[in-house]
């Protein structure tokens, strides 16, 4: 049912191709969100300070990932998909190797730098209002970010391997890799956070009077919040190793070969040219998020930050379908352009826009109807003030959900055509031209407080969807896909 060959993408029904490719990606993204929820659940059992510490690190981690993971991921997916579509298998193999090489080099350099500067970065983030967080929160945040930074090379190699599979049209293997990573994370999270004997994972055994010889002789005290970050890294590593083993065993006509394992400057330059704007797009968003974190701290303190991170986690679940469709559409658009089928690439984008906006509309209605239930489901231990703010945030976010779905798929159309710079410029306008001014002026100057930040996010999402839709219509009428097809078939 979910078997998909390259010719199915370029010759078969477009809706089926999008669905078949996106369903494993949907499951994969659900797995990733479950991993985030599991982390939040176990970290929440440590303390409210631990939850706030994770919230502080989110913008910094995403900026780190934007450079070390997103650049090789997007570049690899788009380049591999176009070359597979044009039946340039040797070029696709070279693109995968170049992506892995870039991910490894950036991860080692940037991860080491981030580890060394973890505490100064957290201090800088809170410099406008240091009293908003205790020293304990700052120490926890620096520890969590530092461990994550050390493992970013492993995460980058794993995600770039997934990108190559997705570009090839094999989203099932990406799912297998993520399911493996989640299984490892589920097992290790409570053990590494709380220790072997003290782990809540084993509480039922203690209540039943069960005590194995292993439990009686083994003692591991746990490493707290660092354990949550370390469990993620180990999960990424094992999931990535599975993908590389499948590559070595010849999956998909042999996605790597000895002849492909060479430094090709043209491929590296092309991959970075495609991926760098996507990394910049994420950086543009997260630099604004850094400012928003400061505004949230300044107007609502720790309760506001806890509500902010809960909203981030819940919305991560809600956008999973559209994010899956975006990844699928990038491969479908890329392969069709590689085959010289610009009309199919155009239709695939519009089909994806309709599907993503429709699904996000339904999810937005659910979130608008039961926000309190969702807050308690994700973090049942929040304070009353943090819960109230989180409920308000979820209601406001829901109004802009259909726009998020539409914007994601318009970006997929541009990205599949190698127009990642367009998505980057759109994000600059969305986050710096709309979101930042509304949040800063409304939250601080006009004293509307943290709710100005909530509304800034929703309004910017709606404006971005309208702007991207209008420019997409103009660009395709001006022959964007025809030119992209000529470039792809010439590789």
Automatic annotation (TrEMBL):
<feature type="transmembrane region" description="Helical">
    <location>
        <begin position="136"/>
        <end position="154"/>
    </location>
</feature>
<feature type="transmembrane region" description="Helical">
    <location>
        <begin position="95"/>
        <end position="116"/>
    </location>
</feature>
<feature type="transmembrane region" description="Helical">
    <location>
        <begin position="390"/>
        <end position="410"/>
    </location>
</feature>
<dbReference type="Pfam" id="PF01554">
    <property type="entry name" value="MatE"/>
</dbReference>
<keyword id="KW-0813">Transport</keyword>
<dbReference type="GO" id="GO:0006811">
    <property type="term" value="P:monoatomic ion transport"/>
</dbReference>
<dbReference type="InterPro" id="IPR002528">
    <property type="entry name" value="MATE_fam"/>
</dbReference>
<dbReference type="InterPro" id="IPR050222">
    <property type="entry name" value="MATE_MdtK"/>
</dbReference>
<feature type="transmembrane region" description="Helical">
    <location>
        <begin position="452"/>
        <end position="474"/>
    </location>
</feature>
<keyword id="KW-0050">Antiport</keyword>
<dbReference type="GO" id="GO:0015297">
    <property type="term" value="F:antiporter activity"/>
</dbReference>
<protein>
    <recommendedName>
        <fullName>Multidrug-efflux transporter</fullName>
    </recommendedName>
</protein>
<keyword id="KW-0472">Membrane</keyword>
<dbReference type="GO" id="GO:0005886">
    <property type="term" value="C:plasma membrane"/>
</dbReference>
<feature type="transmembrane region" description="Helical">
    <location>
        <begin position="422"/>
        <end position="446"/>
    </location>
</feature>
<keyword id="KW-0812">Transmembrane</keyword>
<feature type="transmembrane region" description="Helical">
    <location>
        <begin position="175"/>
        <end position="196"/>
    </location>
</feature>
<feature type="transmembrane region" description="Helical">
    <location>
        <begin position="350"/>
        <end position="370"/>
    </location>
</feature>
<keyword id="KW-1003">Cell membrane</keyword>
<feature type="transmembrane region" description="Helical">
    <location>
        <begin position="50"/>
        <end position="74"/>
    </location>
</feature>
<feature type="transmembrane region" description="Helical">
    <location>
        <begin position="216"/>
        <end position="248"/>
    </location>
</feature>
<keyword id="KW-0406">Ion transport</keyword>
<dbReference type="InterPro" id="IPR048279">
    <property type="entry name" value="MdtK-like"/>
</dbReference>
<keyword id="KW-1133">Transmembrane helix</keyword>
């Amino acid at each position: 049912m979910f078997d998909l060959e390259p010719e199915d993408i370029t010759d078969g029904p477009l809706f089926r191709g999008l669905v078949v490719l996106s369903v494993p990606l949907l499951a994969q993204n659900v797995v990733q969100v479950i991993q985030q929820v599991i982390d939040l659940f176990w970290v929440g059992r440590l303390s409210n300070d631990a939850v706030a510490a994770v919230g502080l690190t989110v913008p910094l981690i995403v900026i780190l990932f934007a450079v070390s993971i997103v650049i090789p991921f997007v570049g690899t997916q788009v380049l591999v998909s176009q070359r597979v579509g044009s039946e340039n298998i040797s070029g696709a193999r070279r693109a995968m190797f170049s992506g892995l090489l870039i991910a490894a080099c950036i991860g080692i350099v940037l991860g080491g730098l981030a580890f060394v500067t973890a505490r100064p970065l957290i201090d800088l983030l809170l410099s406008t209002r240091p009293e908003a967080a205790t020293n304990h929160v700052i120490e926890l945040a620096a520890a969590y970010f530092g461990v994550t930074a050390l493992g970013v090379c492993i995460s980058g190699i794993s995600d770039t391997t997934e990108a190559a599979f997705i570009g090839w049209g094999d989203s099932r293997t990406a799912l297998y890799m993520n399911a493996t990573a989640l299984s490892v994370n589920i097992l290790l999270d409570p053990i590494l956070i709380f220790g072997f004997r003290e782990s809540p994972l084993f509480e039922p055994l203690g209540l039943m009077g069960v005590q194995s010889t292993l439990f009686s002789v083994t003692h591991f005290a746990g490493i707290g919040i660092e354990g949550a970050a370390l469990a993620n890294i180990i999960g990424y590593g094992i999931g990535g190793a599975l993908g590389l083993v499948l590559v070595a065993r010849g999956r998909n006509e042999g996605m790597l070969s000895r002849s492909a394992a060479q430094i090709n400057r043209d491929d590296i330059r092309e991959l970075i040219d495609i991926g760098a704007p996507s990394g910049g797009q994420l950086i543009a968003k997260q630099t604004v998020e850094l400012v928003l974190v400061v505004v949230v701290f300044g107007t609502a303190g720790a309760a506001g930050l806890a509500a902010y991170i809960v909203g981030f986690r819940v919305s991560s679940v809600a956008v999973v379908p559209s994010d899956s469709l975006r990844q699928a559409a990038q491969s479908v658009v890329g392969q069709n352009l590689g085959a010289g089928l610009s009309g199919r690439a155009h239709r695939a984008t519009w089909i994806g826009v309709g599907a993503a906006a429709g699904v996000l509309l339904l999810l937005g209605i659910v979130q608008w109807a039961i926000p309190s239930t969702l807050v308690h489901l994700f973090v049942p231990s929040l304070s009353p003030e943090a819960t109230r703010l989180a409920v308000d945030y979820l209601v406001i976010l829901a109004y802009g959900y259909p726009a998020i779905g539409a914007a994601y798929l318009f970006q997929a159309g541009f990205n599949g055509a190698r127009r990642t710079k367009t998505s980057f410029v759109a994000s600059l306008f969305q986050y710096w031209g709309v979101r930042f001014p509304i949040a800063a002026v409304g939250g601080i100057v006009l004293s509307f407080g943290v709710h100005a930040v909530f509304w800034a996010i929703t309004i910017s999402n709606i404006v971005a969807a309208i702007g991207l839709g209008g420019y997409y219509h103009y660009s395709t009428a001006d022959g964007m896909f025809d030119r992209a097809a000529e470039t792809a078939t010439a590789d």
